[in-house]
From TrEMBL:
Record's keyword annotation contains ATP-binding: yes
This protein's record includes keyword Nucleotide-binding: yes
InterPro entries: AAA+_ATPase (IPR003593), AAA_lid_6 (IPR041627), ATPase_AAA_core (IPR003959), CbxX/CfxQ (IPR000641), CbxX/CfxQ_RuBisCO_ESX (IPR050773), P-loop_NTPase (IPR027417)
UniProt GO molecular function: ATP binding; ATP hydrolysis activity
Matching PANTHER family: AAA-TYPE ATPASE FAMILY PROTEIN / ANKYRIN REPEAT FAMILY PROTEIN, AAA-TYPE ATPASE FAMILY PROTEIN _ ANKYRIN REPEAT FAMILY PROTEIN
Transmembrane residue ranges: none
Domain AAA+ ATPase: 444-583
Similarity comment: Belongs to the CbxX/CfxQ family.
Pfam families: AAA, AAA_lid_6
The protein's name in its UniProt record: AAA ATPase central domain protein
Annotated Gene3D superfamilies: 1.10.8.60, P-loop containing nucleotide triphosphate hydrolases
Swiss-Prot/TrEMBL keywords: ATP-binding, Nucleotide-binding
Region (Disordered): 368-394
Length: 678
């Protein structure tokens, strides 16, 4: 498959030319051949001037280095944004600017990227602060600040912030009232002026000047817009509240910082708080970073590299902002910047080689000549005249194992379930290692109980678990066989046990998933053949526990009755996984996923229409994913009625669901209807 090509304005990223790249909305800047020599010469002249003081006890600089040198460093890390990602060969750009003044061993090691952040909201007047109360020293500090910014006059990604600050410094020196304040006023009044009284266009590009809470609010406002734009092209939705909640948990907060509520607003803050509670149990920061990486990589595959770069910049700012709130931003976890850059390289690098085996394969196919295909859907044994053994595991299609852990991570919601499945996988892997080390078999039972309402992905998780066990070698094949009462219980004496054995045989090497298992033992039916089915099942589970994992599923109360129906049942199922109902955000994400998989686009207003149909509070046995699919299917039916009445419907008309296509009322559901699980 041909790879995507970088847009022209980003072509530098794959060139051999030297460049500075501030990952974000602006393109990289090519460094002129003589720029470093000119810049170091200018900085040396500035450092030789006595306009700013020196310091003997720097950690990184040689003793006696002037403070103007450090301000040049601060400008290099802050002009690109209040938290920036610099990538490529010159990811150490601010350090390289001041390299002639660094102590030996203080230069950063080369890296694909570095994240920088402002540490003071008043960083542009840092030199002014160090000048003390002497008016002449303060004026010299302002001139030195201007000279430092002029070092970066050609660096285009720094231009918006640099120009605003240069204009502001000029006004301070030229406007009498501002000059008096900065040369003679006390520091409290000066900082209040910078925080509250600057022109709006200054705060537009330097939001940190009005405080960290405002800086986070500025970044969230942009992130919300770019996230929504990307969500429209990424097939697997990722609620932004879940991303922010992951940043909260990844950086050591028990709950979203109160100051974050000011930045986000009460409604979004409540969504993030709810997501934190859902993710808290078993939260894994590496798994969260993988989810974020996968989602943004899908944006890259959709060709939206500009949106993806902007999302990474703003999400990084939210990450460091949340990590530090209510105080100064600090480096945080939850976002893999190097992983993103690696994905850009993999997605947009043209493949230069050609697999030489292609020619050999083509020659073999040509030499073989035309081949007759078996009839579609007919097993080879039948095509050759053999017998069909319905109870054999051979009639179950082979399963492509793939990457079940990745498929698990991509499921919407279900964070507690995902963590429990990961633990089950870890137990299975550990058992293999212990066995290889000569330790005795622990005789662990892997049979499970899944409880929860319909449509909560119990069957989907069971399929993934089967593949995980096959990947680890715990199960031979990794397929899943679904069974119900009809498949297991006979109508007459002597029919039930053979039916159970036949289904169990088909599940050999995989998972046997029994939906609504309590139907095997109906109330007040002592003479029902279901008891025989349960007894046969228990014996097979014990005799062949290494061949089949049995998962029984259903509503919580009814499953408890099933476990108590036979003394041997509960002991065979040591673990129960409880599937909770989906939140409104997760149900909307499922709707969008179903629509995208069906080729539909959603017009503005559909989200509100879908959310209005979600019942609050949830009724007993709420259908969850099945409810959403019913809503979607009814919407497509209503849309069909609408578009066939159009005189000449366009392709967009056919593919687009409008708010009026949604049903006026939630579709009815049978609260105890079988087969309602996804």
């Amino acid at each position: 498959m041909p790879r995507l090509s970088l847009p022209d304005d980003l072509a530098l990223l794959q060139s051999a030319e030297p460049y500075v790249d501030v990952v974000g909305a602006l393109p990289p800047w090519r460094i002129p051949d003589d720029w470093w020599a000119r810049t170091h010469e200018s900085l040396a002249r500035l450092a030789a001037s006595d306009t700013t003081g020196t310091r003997e006890d720097w950690d990184a600089y040689v003793p006696g280095t002037r403070r103007s040198v450090h301000f040049a460093f601060m400008a290099g890390q802050c002009l690109g944004g209040w938290s920036t990602i610099l990538s490529g060969e010159h990811s150490r750009f601010p350090w390289q600017v001041v390299e002639p003044f660094l102590k030996p061993g203080k230069m950063l090691a080369p890296s694909l990227s570095y994240r920088y952040r402002a540490e003071l909201v008043t960083w542009p007047i840092w030199l002014l602060d160090w000048a003390g109360t002497d008016p002449e020293a303060r004026e010299n500090a302002l001139h030195a600040s201007i000279e430092c910014l002029q070092l970066y006059a050609e660096v285009t990604p720094f231009a918006p912030a640099r120009e605003q600050l240069l204009n502001l410094y000029t006004q301070i020196l030229d406007v009498a009232s501002m000059r008096e304040l900065h040369l003679e006023g006390d520091w409290t009044r000066i900082t209040a002026f910078w925080r509250n009284d600057l022109d709006t266009q200054v705060y537009d590009v330097l939001p940190e000047l009005s405080g960290w809470v405002d800086a986070v609010a500025w970044s969230y406002e942009g992130l919300a817009e770019v996230h929504k734009a990307l969500d429209d092209v990424v097939a697997r939705p990722l609620p932004l509240a879940d991303v922010l909640a992951a940043f909260v948990l990844a950086n050591g907060h028990d709950a979203p910082p109160a100051a974050l509520g000011t930045s986000l607003g009460p409604e979004v803050y409540a969504d993030v708080t709810a997501s934190v509670e859902r993710q808290r149990r078993g939260f894994d920061v590496d798994a969260a970073e993988t989810r974020h990486r996968d989602w943004i990589a899908r944006g890259l595959m959709a060709g939206e590299i500009h949106l993806c770069r902007t999302w990474m910049q703003l999400a990084s700012q939210m990450c460091v902002g949340i990590a530090g709130l209510p105080g100064v931003p600090r480096h945080g976890r939850g976002l893999g910047t190097n992983l993103f850059l690696e994905d850009v390289e993999e997605t947009y690098t043209a493949r230069r080689g050609r697999n030489p085996y292609l020619d050999g394969i083509a020659e073999r196919v040509a030499a073989r000549g035309p081949q007759q295909r078996p009839e579609a859907g007919v097993p080879l044994a039948l095509a050759d005249g053999g017998d069909d053994d319905e109870g054999s595991p051979d009639d179950v299609p082979d399963v492509v194992i793939g990457d079940p852990q990745a498929d698990l991570a991509e499921l919407i919601g279900l964070d507690p379930i995902k963590e429990q499945v990961r633990r089950l996988a870890a137990e299975a892997r550990a058992d293999v290692l212990r066995r290889e080390a000569g330790m005795p078999d622990p005789g662990r039972s892997r049979h499970l109980v899944f409880v929860g309402n319909p449509g909560t992905a119990k069957t989907t998780v069971a399929r993934i678990l089967a593949r995980i066990y096959a990947q680890l070698g715990t199960l031979e094949r990794g397929h899943l066989v679904e069974a119900s009462r009809m498949d297991l219980v006979g109508e007459y004496i002597g029919q039930t046990a053979p039916k159970v054995r036949k289904v169990f045989e088909r599940a050999s090497g995989g998972v046997l998933f029994i939906d609504e298992a309590y139907a095997l033992v109906p109330r007040d039916s002592a003479r029902d053949f279901g008891q025989e089915a349960v007894a046969t099942l228990i014996k097979l589970m014990e005799d062949r526990r290494d061949e089949v994992v049995v998962i029984v599923a259903g509503y919580p109360a009814e499953m408890q009755r099933f476990l108590e129906s036979n003394p041997g049942v509960a002991s065979r199922f040591p673990k129960t996984l409880a599937f909770g109902d989906y939140s409104d955000d997760e149900l909307w994400s499922i709707f969008r996923l179903v629509a995208a998989q069906s080729g539909f686009t959603l017009a503005y207003g559909v989200e509100q229409a879908v959310r209005s149909l979600l019942p609050r509070p949830r009724p007993n046995a709420f259908g969850n994913g099945r409810f959403v699919r019913n809503v979607f299917e009814e919407a497509t039916a209503l849309q069909a009625q609408r578009i066939i009445e159009l005189p000449a419907p366009t392709s967009d008309d056919i593919r687009t669901l409008l708010p009026q296509d949604l049903p006026a009322y939630a579709p009815l559901q049978d609260d105890r209807a079988p087969g309602m699980y996804l």
